[in-house]
Amino acid sequence: MNKDDIEYLAKIVYDRSGIVLTQEKAYLLESRLAPIARKEGFNSIDDLVSTLRGRADEKMAWQITDAMTTNETFFFRDKTPFDNLKNHVLPELKARKSAGKVRIWCAASSTGQEPYSIAMLLNEEASKYPGLSFEITGTDISNRVVEKAKSGLYSQFEVQRGLPVTSLVKYFDKVDDMWQLKPNIRSQVTFKQGNLQDDFTSLGKFDIIFCRNVLIYFDQPTKAKILERMATMMPDNGYLFLGAAETVMGLTDAFNSSREVRGVYTRQAGWTRAKAA
Ligand SMILES: C[S@@+](CC[C@H](N)C(=O)[O-])C[C@H]1O[C@@H](n2cnc3c(N)ncnc32)[C@H](O)[C@@H]1O
User: Fold this and answer.
1) Which of 69, 148, 203 to mutate to test the pocket of ligand 1 (most atoms within 8 A of CB)?
2) Is the CB of residue 162 less than 8 Å from the CB of residue 74?
3) pLDDT tens-digit profile of 220-252?
4) CA 231, 233, 236, 240: dihedral to nearest 10 degrees?
5) 140 lines ligand 1 (CB under 6 A)
6) What is the CB-side half-sphere exposure of residue 68 using CA atoms within 13 A?
7) pTM
8) Where are the domains of the chain?
9) Class of the domain covering 3-67
10) Predicted pLDDT of residue 276
11) Domain 80-276 sits in which CATH superfamily?
């Protein structure tokens, strides 16, 4: 693929998802778009690109964008965020709010392992929080992964990644050669297609947002815009979990990093978007 074609494809992906693909990522474009070119009857990616240049094809543009998302995830990924949720965030929340609904959003939930890990954890902890009920929402730009997440079906390989065997036995049913989360865990999570480039404030307010391992794909202005929009959807001191390679530093003053709990940020009390502008 030549430099122009790489730039053309990178723009298609950036305009729709915010994902930045540099020239060094050309190998990724080649390996992920080759199956699409074949499936659509093109002789090569070059052919696909020249056809696309000739006529706008939004469906194809989204297929390309979807293929360029990285959906890597696994149960209880990185372990520490889930320990922090259990040992610090939930007890703190209880001190603030002894009754009512706690809303949790996984903002790039991929195939669902992250929100389902939270649902299993909450199931274990529920007796400590008798006055609270929990609602979990998972969103992702890719319909393909959202549909898989909804099914709650995972392969042997997937359940062997991060999931304690005791949880496998307790929360999954064997369905042919797959494992399916039991209905009581599945029903705790609502999945929707959702693009972080869009105005997602209609999802409502959240006490806790997990936005892990997705900001790494965006440029600085996009990261700042998404974080500040999230801040408008949280109460003062609401909790934001980012991935190990992600931070709010240098992007926005809407969040403070928690001194005791690494990777967890709290929404600054009284912050407003206007104040930051
Ligand atoms: C590496 S996965 C992270 C999954 C999970 N949060 C975790 O940490 O294991 C990144 C996910 O972000 C999604 N994604 C990428 N761009 C997005 C966007 N603009 N809006 C919503 N989701 C996006 C991808 O489809 C992918 O499933």
Assistant:
1) 69
2) yes
3) 999 999 999 999 999 999 999 999 999 999 999
4) -60
5) yes
6) 30
7) 0.96
8) 3-67, 80-276
9) mainly alpha
10) 46
11) Vaccinia Virus protein VP39 (3.40.50.150)
